[in-house]
Amino acid sequence: MGVGMDVIRVSVETATSAPDGRTNAYLLGTDSALLVDPAARTDDLDDAISDRSVDHVAVTHHHPDHVDAVETYADRCDATVWAHATHADGFAAATGVSPDRTFRSGTVIDVDGDEVRIRDTPGHAPEHVAFEWTGGALVGDLAIAAGSVVVGGPEADMRSYLTSLRRLHARNPENLYPGHGPVIEDSRATLERLVVHRLEREARVRAAVESGARTVDEILDAAYDKDISDVRRLAAATVRCHLEKLDTEGDIAWDGQHAEPR
Questions:
Q1: Longest CA span, the chain
Q2: Same domain, 60 and 118
């Protein structure tokens, strides 16, 4: 657990693409607690908040598997609802709640006298943030203990995602509290692994294009050496983000349908 911070992780069942079909909600603190990513109302989460005063509710990003019970717990706890200042409308649309207060990167929320600082960590989603305190960081879908994070969809950005991983690596939090799966105690090693994985996948995508693959399906077949039939849609979305990054950086030409070497 983070130094000086009481942290409770509650795994709740959600409609998520994560392998176990669950999302972590977190309670930071006791007397003026911050509830992050209340993905669904469950008995376990009800029990977790029953013996503490929840003063604040916030989310790491607006994907449905992280926000679906924001309104429920904000009302139940009469808590202050926070949202990113530049994405407040998106937050309201996703949660059905207009935020009471907004934050930017660097904003501090007081939790039991400890500072929880907001850090912009875009990439998986443009509004994605982490919550950082002495000894730990709650990182949503930036990192995961095993496997990799899907960086796909129209609002995902692979360049931003890699930058977010590197910036968090430089700050070197003791523990990472991810949106899915167990707490990560080897934070630097995990962040390094995720960067290396993305760069290796990017190299395979570039090599596939240079070898003649032109469409996403052709690139998928060339860039993956394992059976991805169960996750092909997610892999395709991630490959598109790699192609967009490579096009922006001038390594290949990608028009949204076809790729060409430069």
A1: 61
A2: yes
Same domain, 160 and 96: yes
Q: Return the CATH number at 231.
A: 1.10.10.10
The answer to the question of residue 174 being in a domain is yes
pLDDT in tens, 7-21: 999 999 998 766 678
CA angle 140, 6, 26 (to 5 degrees): 30
Residue 175 is inside which H or E element, if any? strand 175-178
Q: Are residues 89 and 204 in the same domain?
A: no
How does DSSP assign 57-92, residue by residue?
Answer: EE-S---HHHHTTHHHHHHHHTPEEEEEGGGHHHHH
Other beta carbons less than 10 A from residue 186's beta carbon: 12
Q: What is the pTM assigned to this prediction? A: 0.94
Closest CA to 67 of 85, 44, 41: 41
Name the domain count of the chain.
Answer: 2
